[in-house]
Amino acid sequence: MRIGFLLYDNLTQLDLTGPAQVLSRLPGAQVDYVAATMAPVMSDCRLALMPTVTLADAGQFDLLCVPGGFGCSAVMNDDVVLAWLRGQAPGLKYLTSVCTGSLILAAAGLLVGRRAGCHWAWGQYLALFGAEFVAERTVIDGNIITAGGVTSGIDFAFRIAEHLHGRDLADVLRLALEYDPDQAPGGTPATARPEILAQVQAINTTRIGQREAEIRSAAAVFAGNQS
Predict the structure, then answer these.
(1) Is 54 in contact with 61 (CB distance < 8 Å)?
(2) Active centre residues (catalytic)
(3) How many domains does the chain have?
(4) Is the pTM of this model over 0.85?
């Protein structure tokens, strides 16, 4: 199985590296990291990621994953990347994303009428592209599998492993990677302390506000393409 991860500037590396670590261990998996050029791509925590193939030379994947990150709004307006995603979609067995990567898929017109996961602070924008936000860690709608925010990508990858190869293989990988997360509350708006939620919402308001114009620009293009 050919598995591809899209790289772009200012992505959140854990959106990619978490599921990549799991999916790279699937039997027969060949993982590639795809970008416009072969130059290193800088993530939002200043960890540089090295592409293994360009968009032009990637060929058809079986499973494609688009990670999220603060750079997503710029990619939502990148005609080259969006056209490449649309070109990949018909030949994919699975089209997937983590966190705000679903907004990129939505901007490409690939989530119309679909249920999709996203980071809780950004999910409301999916409606601008004809998709339904679902606040779950992994959302499966046909051959489209989308994850919630950041760490959800690891759970998402184990769901894919189990779907493709069964529970035993998924459990083998889970033990090999010692994935036994602490279930203490606080990682969702519903379980966070009110004062903590207010702090994070204030931070998100600033960060999203800096990118909302780009999101709405992409939504306007999407609406024009639908008319």
Answers:
(1) no
(2) 99
(3) 1
(4) yes
